[in-house]
Write a structure and sequence with these properties.
The complex is a heterodimer of chains A (433) and B (305). Chain A is an alpha/beta fold and 433 residues long. Chain A contains eight helices and 20 strands. In chain A, 25% of the residues lie in helices and 33% in strands. In chain A, helix 3 packs across helix 4, helix 3 packs across helix 5 and helix 4 crosses helix 5. Chain A is globular and about 70 Å long. Chain B is mainly alpha-helical and 305 residues long. Chain B has one domain. Helix content of chain B is 62%, strand content 3%. A two-stranded antiparallel sheet of chain B has the order 2-3. Classes of the chains: A alpha/beta (433), B mainly alpha (305). At the A-B interface, helix 1, helix 2, strand 4, helix 3 and helix 6 of A face strand 1, helix 3, helix 6 and helix 13 of B. Strand 4 of chain A pairs antiparallel with strand 1 of chain B, so a sheet runs across the interface.
């Protein structure tokens, strides 16, 4: 009975991309290409689906997925993360039977509902009520099932007053709420979700997340693609990282996210040093551990130092340097360090070395990025975004049974915990945290 | 350094839930598939609710936000009938088998309008629902089939108008009306078969869509809508070979359908069973090949849409 709900075996999917067209540069060339173009178009359109008969690696073929294998157990909530174009959506499309794989296979045990978009099949001319039925049946519910849950769905959406209005008169928010309400009441054995939580206002999003949590705890198998790392952390029991069509990591969600976030930082954003601008150059930016070693990763609670070499090309009176720290998961600004509030001497023309010592590092495990700015009120002279990244790793403290992990938050607040008992004879114990 | 006691890990509280009861779970295998297959009736039955709602949506949405509403279903054949009666009946004086030209042409326009509209609608069904195709799975065949089914509403309404017109001219139907369900079935099967062929092509080659808009109009002249089948000769000789053009003509299933309608409702001639037999042959061929082509192409719809 321990059969996996989803078994994926060597799944591959190729797409053909359009090659660059030759542009004719003579009138004759233009005329002849005009005559030839129907034939070329035909060839092109026909070849859209002939990749399966193709041998070897043609240059216009991209493998959206290559040799992907994994299993999802019944009741597991699997997060699928990865950069845009990594193949996540293709994977979901194959598993939800929208498109066929080029090779390999997937075995799915149970009724599947896939939610790759909210409001699939919504028709603007139909009323809210009618669209609930339309959308519900498209997502695989039966009419009887919808009848049964109709009131609940309407309640969840909060648009009961407009149920008989055509949804083209709805605001986009109302439409999304109605669509999500339908989706939230699906009860398949396997649920496949792509990025749909990124809709609605904050309150509605929380409601959706709560609903998803219920679904996950209800023993359903869920496949969840998202760019929203906190919700992956909150919902998933396991995560896979997809990179360029391959599975790069399969395991604990926080590790998958760390790998994803750090790899995307390395490749995407770190600007080369020295970072030059009109007013100043940043010659170096290093984060050093307590022992003075330059590093990108620090254990939880470890002190560190930031050393910055910066050259001002001309005097900038009143300028101060701002270091902003962002959490990579969600771009939440965690902290700011500025030379404005401190009594340090101002930056002058020429070379400056700024040393910032952090003795008490409150950052919880996660990946953080530094942004450096030179500014004064009203002016920004230099912005170096994501100039360096620092990963804080998990660590179990002495005497503790569990490590501090990333989903505990952004910062660690040192606090004294006291528990008072009502009929206590002796002094309460103070517990440092 | 503070000595921290970490709270219990959140991960453990949302541990894997209790598995659902091991009921009879359907197993789906997704793999590349190159076999030819016919209509999967079992799957269509499973999706019957969606089928029903799509048909209903097509009907409901068709004349939404129009003042005349469903009256448009009648206006199209009615105005064609008026124009044909003036031009072909009065001016060109085309033989109408002894019945008033207005009923003669309207009895043909009712099935023909159904046929041309449902083929056009069926052809567009995949392209206009490409969003649905690329976002959710359901048997794709529901789309052209629901287009063909939903057009029956227009058909029924113009049938009523036809009966009113017959009452006006004092023509009475005969026992041939018992064959009407058969004629209607033949008409629907042909439309469905053609619709499946064309829509599977149109999703990959949009040319079909542009061609359909005028080809359908031209095709009307390949069926006895404005004229009677009696003007088609029964023998034609090329060299030493003698052909029967009327039988070749009757390979078009709509020839049998239209002449059958006229026979049953207007009594112009006995029920043309020979035409119907030939037409059924073509219709079967079209629907079987159409369904198979459609099923074969089905797996790439989401990729080319």
């Amino acid at each position: 009975m321990s059969q996996a709900a989803i078994t994926v075996e060597n799944l591959s999917k190729a797409y053909r991309i359009g090659l660059k067209e030759e542009i004719p540069d003579t009138l004759f060339g233009a005329a002849s290409s005009f005559v030839r173009s129907p034939f070329k178009n035909f060839q092109r359109l026909r070849s859209l689906n002939t990749y399966d008969s193709h041998h070897g690696e043609a240059e216009d073929i991209v493998w959206a997925l290559k040799d992907v294998s994994f299993e999802v157990q019944e009741g597991e909530v699997l997060g699928v993360i990865g950069r845009n174009g990594a193949g996540k959506s293709t994977l979901l499309k194959i598993l939800s039977r929208i498109t066929k794989p080029t090779s390999g296979r997937a075995i799915i045990r149970g009724r599947v509902s896939s939610l790759l978009e909210v409001g699939t099949g919504f028709h603007p001319e139909l009323s809210g009520r009618e669209n609930v039925y339309m959308n519900g049946t498209i997502l695989g519910m039966t009419k009887r099932e919808i009848d049964r849950k109709f009131d609940e769905i309407v309640d969840f959406s909060g648009v009961e007053r407009f149920l008989d209005t055509p949804i083209k008169r709805y605001s986009s928010g109302m439409k999304v709420r109605l669509a999500f309400a339908v989706a939230a009441h699906l009860e398949p054995e396997i649920l496949i979700i792509d990025e749909v939580l990124a809709v609605g206002d904050a309150e509605f999003q929380r409601k959706c997340l709560g609903k998803m949590q219920n679904v996950a705890e209800g023993g359903r198998t869920v496949l969840f693609v998202s760019h929203n790392m906190p919700s992956v952390l909150a919902l998933c029991t396991r995560a896979v990282l997809v990179n360029a069509g391959c599975l790069q990591y399969d395991g604990i969600p926080s590790n998958a996210i760390d790998q994803h976030v750090s790899s995307s930082v390395d490749i995407l954003s770190a600007p080369p040093l020295p970072f030059r601008s009109e007013f100043a150059d940043v010659d170096s930016f290093t984060v050093k551990s307590y022992e003075g070693r330059q590093t990108g990763t620090l254990p939880f609670l470890a002190p560190f130092t930031v050393n910055i070499d910066i050259t001002l090309k001309s005097p900038l009176p009143g300028v101060h340097m701002l270091l902003a720290l962002y959490r990579k998961d969600d771009d939440c600004r965690v902290a700011s360090i500025t030379t404005r509030e401190s009594a340090c001497s101002p930056l002058t023309a020429g070379h400056n070395r700024v040393i910032c010592e952090v003795d008490h590092n409150p950052l919880l495990p996660g990946v953080y990025a530094w942004t450096l700015q030179l500014r004064r009120p009203g002016d920004v002279f230099l912005t170096a975004s994501d100039i360096a990244t620092t990963a804080i790793t998990e660590r179990t403290l002495e005497g503790a049974s569990h490590p501090y992990v990333r989903n505990h938050g952004c910062v660690h607040i040192c606090s004294d915990l006291v528990v008072h008992h009502t009929n206590d004879k002796h002094e309460p114990t103070v517990c440092k945290s | 350094m503070p000595t921290a006691t970490a709270e219990p890990q959140v991960d453990q509280t949302k541990a894997v839930g209790t598995p659902l009861a091991p009921v009879d779970v359907p197993v789906t295998i997704v793999e590349p598939d190159s076999a030819w297959s016919f209509i999967d009736f079992h799957e269509l039955y499973q999706f019957r609710d969606l089928f029903r709602f799509l048909v209903w949506r097509n009907i409901k949405v068709l004349y939404a936000q129009s003042t005349l509403g469903i009256a448009w279903a009648v206006i199209q054949p009615l105005f064609s009938m008026l124009v044909f009666t003036i031009i072909f009946g009065k001016l060109a004086k085309i033989d109408s088998d002894g019945v008033p030209y207005a009923v003669f042409s309207f009895a043909a326009l009712v099935p023909w309008t159904y046929f041309s509209n449902s083929v056009t609608e069926g052809t567009n069904s995949l392209v206009s629902n490409s969003n649905m195709i690329s976002k959710v799975y359901f048997p794709r065949m529901i789309l052209p089939l629901s287009a063909v089914l939903s057009k029956l509403v227009d058909f029924s309404i113009s049938m009523l108008v036809l009966l009113a017109l017959m009452a006006w001219y004092g023509t009475t139907p005969n026992w041939g009306v018992l064959a009407l369900p058969l004629l209607i079935a033949l008409m629907m099967v042909t439309a469905a078969g053609l619709g499946m062929w064309l829509t599977a092509l149109a999703i990959q080659y949009r040319d079909i869509k542009y061609a359909m808009s005028f080809v359908v109009q031209l095709l009307m002249y390949a069926a006895p809508v404005v004229y009677s089948v009696s003007i088609i000769p029964t023998t034609y000789t090329i060299g030493s070979v003698t052909l029967n053009p009327r039988l070749i003509y009757a390979l078009n299933p709509m020839v049998g359908v239209i002449e059958g309608f006229r026979s049953a409702l207007l009594g112009t001639r006995p029920m043309p069973w020979d035409f119907l037999a030939l037409g059924s042959l073509t219709a079967t061929l079209v629907v079987v090949s159409g369904a198979m082509y459609f099923r074969r192409k089905e797996q790439i719809f989401a990729d080319v849409a």
